[in-house]
Design a protein that fits this description.
about 190 residues, mainly alpha, Endonuclease III, domain 1
Length: about 190
């Protein structure tokens, strides 16, 4: 029996979810493409559970050309139609359009800031926020930082980037360490 102390997420018994928690969630990410992927996937999660998107992640990577924003920005109606018929992803036209728009906006930000990483990490002053939550119920759904990120991304034309989605993104890419203090990963990823 696995006796490792972990965060108390619902659904943690799923091996894919456990692997994500143990190896990815909360680890500071600075790769521009992986940050873009995470933002798009978190937006795709709107109204769904994270495990649903996590199980479809490899399909998303195939369907969206490895989340290459330079390819995605050129998607036309033919490609959108293919995506709408791709069974491995959430086939929601608004979310697909949001991903394509996001790719275009990603390129604008990269040109302006030199990297998406530099822009996105500015919301936490380039250093992870390390929280000290004991219980899952203490973890907020959004914060001042995620509200600021949401407002700026929306101002720039991104969609599906509300404060809760932005906070989930921040947690996932390690801008925030929200592993519970009793979780073995809390201290490991600092």
């Amino acid at each position: 029996m696995d006796e490792i102390a972990r965060c108390s997420w619902k659904g943690m018994g799923d091996p894919l979810y456990t692997k994500y928690h143990d190896e990815e969630w909360g680890v500071p990410q600075h790769d521009n493409i992986k940050l873009f992927e995470a933002l798009i996937l978190d937006g795709s999660q709107a109204g769904l559970s994270w495990i649903t998107i996590l199980k479809k992640r490899e399909h998303y990577r195939l369907a969206f050309d490895g989340f290459d924003p330079y390819k995605m920005a050129d998607y036309d109606e033919k490609k959108i139609s293919e995506l709408m018929n791709y069974p491995g992803i959430v086939r929601n036209r608004l979310k697909i359009d949001a991903a394509i728009t996001g790719a275009k906006k990603f390129m604008e930000i990269t040109k302006e800031y030199g990297s998406f990483d530099k822009f996105i990490w500015s919301f936490v002053q380039y250093s992870p926020i390390v929280n000290q939550w004991k219980y899952q119920k203490e973890v907020p759904a959004s914060t001042r930082e995620s509200e600021a990120m949401s407002a700026e991304l929306r101002r720039r034309g991104f969609k599906f980037v509300g404060p809760t989605i932005c906070y989930a993104f921040m947690q996932g890419v390690g801008m925030v360490n929200d592993h519970l203090v009793g979780c073995f990963r809390h201290d490991q990823i600092q």
